DNA sequence: GTCTATAATGGGATAGAC
DNA sequence: GTCTATCCCATTATAGAC
């Protein structure tokens, strides 16, 4: 609390005029990185376009947004255990919903013959772990556009195998 | 410390007959997950075989070993900041060395025309983040062989694009 | 709404008996 | 080598003046 206060230019005790507890601060950050995150990014999955186009757009926005809110994301992950049971469950639910929506667009891509994975749920987890790992090492001097390009390729052409041929072909 | 002691069936104070401090315990765990990890897994990169074969073997062993030491790995990550500066630097160095060795075999695969990535360092980070993400969600009821198979495919055929054709072809 | 001063709690670590 | 009892310190949170 003292560090947070110092970063804002006040003393630790004064923080309690703005938040009731440390948990409330952490919860507010976690909500921005989950509920607000979902609201901001998921709509792109409902636009026109093929599953691979929609997922590529999501991945690019995901990477750029991670870079923009890197510290908050780290806090949201590391301090998850400091939340109340209710708040933690809420946050986990939002993360799970995001993961499910990614799984669904992957499954759509598989049905369309664009993607080549056995288990869309597992592939969604692998892709999201790969993306979210960025927050642990990203520094300010990175070329974000190139970074996002690379990860779109890793995810869509790589893990999901866009363009790779499997057994079948014509969906259904 | 009290929880650790309880898990061993003794009282908190008795732990200090075996370790000088909590930091020493955390450091011991971190060393197993980095120094010992490197010694155990990296030799496979020096065996006979093509880069993709050697990397596939490493990825499979990596995933299975993550599952075997899941909790220690989580501790090693989450409590990294609890280590002394020296110990933390040592642990980070071992992790960096592992990452560099993975980068090198990826670069070898690119030179051989097997892999298709622009930046082996970035690809190594992406692959390792994808693998290490497993420790956050793995439960005991998973089919580890199938899990390892999937991640070998995600990494070697996916991110690294084994079999994908790029511009050139005959290395050098 | 910020400050100083101060509770109150939790957890790492020590002392000394057995 | 384990125990009980205790210390010690960091940190969250509160009280009350300004």
Quick take:
Two copies of one chain form a homodimer. Chain A has helices spanning about 1-10, 20-40, 50-70, 70-80, 85-110, 120-130, 145-160. With about 170 residues, chain A is mainly α.
Structural description of this entry:
- 2 copies of one chain form a homodimer.
- Chain A is mainly α.
- Chain A has one domain (21-159): Tetracycline Repressor, domain 2 (Orthogonal Bundle), CATH 1.10.357.
- Chain A contains 7 helices and no strands.
- In chain A, helix 2 (22-41) crosses helix 4 (70-78) and helix 3 packs antiparallel against helix 5.
- Chain A starts with a helix and ends in a 13-residue tail after the last helix.
- The mean pLDDT of chain A is 95.
- The interface between A and B is medium-sized, with 26 and 26 residues.
- Chain A binds a DNA duplex (18 and 18 nucleotides) through loops.
Secondary-structure topology with pairs:
The structure is a homodimer.
Chain A: H1 2-8, H2 22-41, H3 51-68, H4 70-78, H5 85-111, H6 120-132, H7 144-159
Helix pairs in contact in A: 2-4, 2-5, 3-5, 3-7, 5-6
The first copy, chain A, binds a DNA duplex (18 and 18 nucleotides) through loops.
Give the oligomer, counting copies of the same chain as homo and different chains as hetero: homodimer
Question: What would you report as the Rg of chain A, rounded to the nearest angstrom?
Answer: 19 Å
From the coordinates shown, what is the CATH architecture of chain A? Orthogonal Bundle
Averaged pLDDT of chain A: 95
Query: What's the shape of chain A?
Result: elongated
* Helical content of chain A (DSSP H or I, runs of 4+): 55-70%
Q: What is the CATH topology descriptor of chain A?
A: Tetracycline Repressor, domain 2
Through-space gap between termini of chain A = 56 Å
């Amino acid at each position: 609390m003292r560090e947070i206060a110092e970063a804002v230019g006040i003393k630790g005790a004064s923080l309690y005029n703005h938040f009731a507890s440390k948990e409330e601060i952490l919860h507010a950050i976690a909500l921005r990185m989950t509920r607000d995150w979902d609201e901001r990014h998921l709509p792109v999955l409902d636009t026109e376009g093929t599953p691979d186009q929609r997922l590529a757009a999501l991945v690019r926005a995901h990477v750029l947004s991670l870079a923009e809110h890197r510290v908050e994301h780290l806090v949201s992950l590391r301090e998850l255990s400091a939340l109340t049971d209710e708040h933690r469950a809420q946050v986990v639910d939002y993360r799970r919903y995001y993961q499910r929506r990614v799984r669904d667009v992957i499954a759509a891509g598989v049905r369309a013959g664009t993607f080549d994975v056995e288990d869309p749920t597992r592939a969604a987890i692998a892709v999201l772990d790969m993306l979210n790992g960025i927050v642990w090492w990203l520094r300010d001097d990175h070329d974000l556009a190139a970074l996002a390009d690379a990860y779109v390729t890793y995810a869509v052409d790589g893990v999901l195998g866009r363009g790779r041929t499997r057994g079948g072909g014509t969906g259904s």
